[in-house]
Amino acid sequence: CGAGSGPAGSPGQGGSQGREQPVLETVLPAPAEEPNGTDSAKAPKVNCEERNVTGVDRFTLQILNVSQDLMEFLNPNSSDCTLVLFYTPWCRFSASLAPHFNSLPRAFPTLRFLALDASQHSSLSTRFGTVAVPNILLFQGAKPMARFNHTDRTLETLKDFIFNQTGIEAKSDVAVTKEDWEGPLPSVLTKGMDWLLLFSLLFLASFVMYATVRTESIRWLIPGQEHEHQE
């Protein structure tokens, strides 16, 4: 769970409290996010094919379970766009983001929204550079095009990010509701082990141990070092 500032409060607030710097890295080819201003009139950075929503009554987020592969939901031969959230249920920043992310499908019904537990999909986390959660990537087809890198993770900043990247405007009447705080993405923390952090610590410990052993081996190979050690 990476540090960062995110929305917090009760279901009736939907605001943000407190500010902490997130741990995010820029590994995608897309340029850094621009402020929402006069530059927003420029051509979109990602030309998304908007899906047909005729006959669709309910727009909601889909959460992948442990047996589902993200690649099965992303069509490499398509130009449609999907916003994917990597989260963990015991990360407080993921929990505070949840109601805002839950409301996005209603704001952008022609786009798709997926979420997956990073601890259950470690190979995907490694593949897409998820060293901290929550991590939000915009995909076109099966290719990651941009990473959300704002310090405030609210419905408004998420809407600005999508608009600046795709040129698609959000529906103006969408707001975070009580139902968004209830699901589908959980806004209540659950106890669990942060496997990403544990893996990072184990890797670091193994590297330090390996470096120490290698250093001692080299010292014994240098003439005169063994004599100094014996004295």
TrEMBL record:
Location of region: Disordered: 1-44
Sorted UniProt keywords: Membrane, Transmembrane, Transmembrane helix
GO cellular component terms listed in the entry, alphabetical order: cilium
Chain ranges passing through the membrane: 195-213
Pfam family, one: Thioredoxin
Compositionally biased intervals (Gly residues): 1-17
Protein name as catalogued: TXD15 protein
PROSITE patterns for this protein: THIOREDOXIN_2 (PS51352)
Biological processes per GO annotation: cilium assembly
Domain Thioredoxin residue range list: 24-167
Database matches in Gene3D superfamilies: Glutaredoxin
Protein source organism: Cochlearius cochlearius
